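Quick start: what a row looks like.
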Amino acid sequence: MSGVELVPTVPNRIANTVLGGAPAVGFAVYAAQGAGWAAAVALAFLALAVRGWRAGVRCEPGRLVVRGYLWTRRIERSRITAVTDFPAVRWTARRGRPRWTPILVLVASPAETAGVYRRKQENTARLRRWATGRRR
């Protein structure tokens, strides 16, 4: 699987993981006290924590793989019509239906630290170049 990974900075990835990790620990403790249903909830939050760490975009030779908190979307490069400022990928499904896939981990805010903001902007620009077939 060759390709370019576009992921947030390590502090952002840790923060994304905490969104699922902290509740997973809490529910695991509750499950240890005898609440069986809490174990299932803890596992669901643990899965969310892992997905939070892995969230990002992979630009492969013929397709784009967008890994979000809840699902992974694979989009053929030839079907991509645009990369928006949000950022999101606009693309056309096989049956011709227009689709929109947001990339939440690359949403940049001027309130973030300069390095984090710059990394997200650079990753969005790299995604645009990849989608249009330009090298640089």
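That is the whole record. The longest strand covers residues 63-67. The chain has a mean pLDDT of 94.
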